[in-house]
């Protein structure tokens, strides 16, 4: 079977071809930065984490076995680095959801996708605009308050619209774990939204929200 252009480029990079490696990094750096930004919530932090991700890609490309797709492998590294960053620094800031990317596999069968919660096709009036803006800001803050593992699965499923199998490969967990973690993440998000609505403000909140206990960091395997 004839290899795809990316597979041919990857083969060269694994053999130490620096130009091929550079092309791979250039092709994926914006996507990896956006993954980091959605996770850590701040552009400067995202740039720092993304640099760490690119370094790990450079260090690990020769050992990449191809058991998952190249994009999946690099996204896994980005998620792992972002979760580690969140746990070290307990960052709690607004998550940027303005530029979603990735495949569109349709709505989830458990609940309406998070994307549907933050997008409205209607033409709202002035009062509705104010209400929607406040709700959107609460949603962003609630998501930022969640544990990193919960935030990761919500971003991959409800923003990027990845299927369960792809998420499992990205996070290096079984599909069953993906489903249970997503269920608990959505419950935690709803509870955090209720808490923010009950206090009637969007500027408060501690270093981390009551988003449940994590099941452990996503694995770093290939």
Keywords:
222 residues, mainly alpha, Rna Polymerase Sigma Factor, Chain: A, Arc Repressor Mutant, subunit A, 2 domains, elongated, disordered C terminus
What do you see in this structure?
The chain has two domains: 5-89, Rna Polymerase Sigma Factor, Chain: A (Orthogonal Bundle); 114-199, Winged helix-like DNA-binding domain superfamily/Winged helix DNA-binding domain (Arc Repressor Mutant, subunit A), CATH 1.10.10. The protein starts with a helix and ends in a 23-residue tail after the last helix. It is elongated. Helix 2 (18-40) runs antiparallel to helix 3 (43-60) and helix 8 (164-171) crosses helix 9 (175-199). The chain is built from nine helices and no strands. It is mostly helical and 222 residues long.
Q: Given the structure, what is the number of helices?
A: 9
Instruction: State the end-to-end distance.
Output: 23 Å
Shape: elongated
The domain tally reads 2
Average pLDDT reading = 75
> What does the main sheet amount to?
none
**Fold-level CATH name of the largest domain:** Arc Repressor Mutant, subunit A
Radius of gyration: 18 Å
| Low-pLDDT segments, ≥5 res | 91-113, 117-124, 202-222
Strand content: under 5%
How many strand units? 0
Percentage of residues assigned to helices: 55-70%
What's the name of the CATH homologous superfamily of the largest domain? Answer: Winged helix-like DNA-binding domain superfamily/Winged helix DNA-binding domain
Helix and strand string, N-terminal first? HHHHHHHHH
Structural class: mainly alpha
The CATH class label of the largest domain is: Mainly Alpha
């Amino acid at each position: 079977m004839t290899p795809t252009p990316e597979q041919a480029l990857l083969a060269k990079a694994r053999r130490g071809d620096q130009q091929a490696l550079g092309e791979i990094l250039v092709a994926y750096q914006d996507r990896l930065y956006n993954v980091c930004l959605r996770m850590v919530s701040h552009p400067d932090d995202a740039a720092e984490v993304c640099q760490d991700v690119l370094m790990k890609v450079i260090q690990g490309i020769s050992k990449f076995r191809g058991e998952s797709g190249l994009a999946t492998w690099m996204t896994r590294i980005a998620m792992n680095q972002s979760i580690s960053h969140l746990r070290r620094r307990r960052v709690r800031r607004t998550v940027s959801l303005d530029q979603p990317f990735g495949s569109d596999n349709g709505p989830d069968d458990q609940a309406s996708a998070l994307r549907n919660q933050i997008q409205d096709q209607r033409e709202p009036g002035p009062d509705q605009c104010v209400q929607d803006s406040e709700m959107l800001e609460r949603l962003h803050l609630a998501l930022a308050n969640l544990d990193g593992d919960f935030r990761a699965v919500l971003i991959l499923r409800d923003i990027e619209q990845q299927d369960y199998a792809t998420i499992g490969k990205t996070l290096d967990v079984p599909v069953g774990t993906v489903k249970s973690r997503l269920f608990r993440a959505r419950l935690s998000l709803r509870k955090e939204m209720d808490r923010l609505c009950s206090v009637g403000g969007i500027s408060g909140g501690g270093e981390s929200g009551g988003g449940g206990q994590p099941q452990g960091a996503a694995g770093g395997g290939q």
